[in-house]
């Protein structure tokens, strides 16, 4: 069959977006509409002629709407094979009318369980039964029936009807069927994930989805350890849809694309205001910038290059933070990603100036269109909206060979666990800068060293296989940028295996150092600090990033 002529449609949607436009388009082609509950009411209130499903079935909606379309009169009208003699005879014998188009979107289960504090009863009531059955029936019989599962498909459907005199090409019907099965698969995966993580909660237990991880639900208060895997699920299934084709992958010659969870997620918050198409590497750097910006409440600016910060700074004004972050290592900042935790306003835009950034990302763009138009042609401006206000995903995932590697997200720094192990204690200013540097070090690829003063970075040593080399790189970058490190502080993401790093830092004039501790040579490191007269603190926690 080359096309499917649509004479009767069953329309039952929880999301009413675009519903009236759809109805107008169907009416234009004389399509009869059968509907249920709130959908039928909305259509009638708008003046459309609608037949209730209960007229087809001879039954009212039962059990608060739990049963309304689950009936042979409905599914027979969808599933019978057109042109099949026995099916046609049986349909007529039982008075079953043909349904050629099924428009259904499901109860918002994923959105419901994403809210903190949702109880189990509320979640269960948002599990759609009739909707998936309708979608699967129509998708199975896609040679004769068209199925539409989301408002985003309405335009393509109506365009096909207009172009083909009220018919839908078979190729489009098959594509819509594939989309239908994708939707029900993702829906079932989300439900299974919820039930798997929820287990048998005790009364009053709060169930919540991991932020940014649709399909995975954690029990509030669960830890990272335990016989059952703690916060990590036993099974993980999710579906993703292509959201954007990228310029290329990590390198030209590699294709790249951005996918969003089927049920939506944090990645869909990113809104590009202007500039060229993003690349794979741009997005990795944007993610790294967002992760670091979440560390700070004061106005902050960070510059990220190849997933590492080249500079970060706090200031009373965003514009001042931009300048300090850039000048932390202006050579490395060239072509980097500038991230802000305050809106991009006129003063901040002036601080951006003509410096070559690939992307500027901020939670709100408060600049006149004419001002944005004056920026470098290809500069990408991203609006982060409320993304920085949302907590980071409680579980982080990356691909490993053909599997997944997952871990719980680190909690906030445990500054109350820090202890001074040297004879000299840090000053209040040094302690403030050490805490700032530690927050930055948590987002630098290991081995990581961060040198800072005045809540701005002076030098960052990233990704070195030797810790003493990371110290050497951080000091060299500070010197190259014209920074005087005397009186500055230094943080290391893991312990010093030998005292040489402390000795090198002390010779450069570093005043205070923080590292996790835990080496068998910690005593030698403390002795080196005491000999140099600098303050040495142990954080008691490591912050590797790979």
Question: Which secondary structure elements does this structure contain, and how are they paired or packed?
Answer:
Blueprint (H helix, E strand, L loop, with lengths): L2 E3 L2 E6 L5 H10 L3 E4 L1 H9 L4 E3 H5 L14 H8 L5 H9 L7 E5 L3 H5 L6 H6 L4 H11 L5 E3 L5 H10 L3 E3 H29 L8 E3 L7 E3 L20 E6 L11 E5 L9 E4 L5 H14 L6 E6 L2 E7 L3 H11 L1 H4 L2 E5 L5 H7 L4 E6 L6 H5 L6 E4 L11 E6 L2 E6 L10 E2 L7 H14 L7 E4 L4 E5 L5 H14 L8 E4 L7 H9 L3 E4 L6 H11 L2 E4 L8
Parallel strand pairs: 2-3, 2-5, 3-4, 5-6, 15-16, 16-17, 23-24, 24-25
Antiparallel strand pairs: 1-7, 8-9, 10-11, 12-17, 13-14, 13-15, 18-19, 20-25, 21-22, 21-23
Helix pairs in contact: 8-10, 12-14, 17-18, 18-19
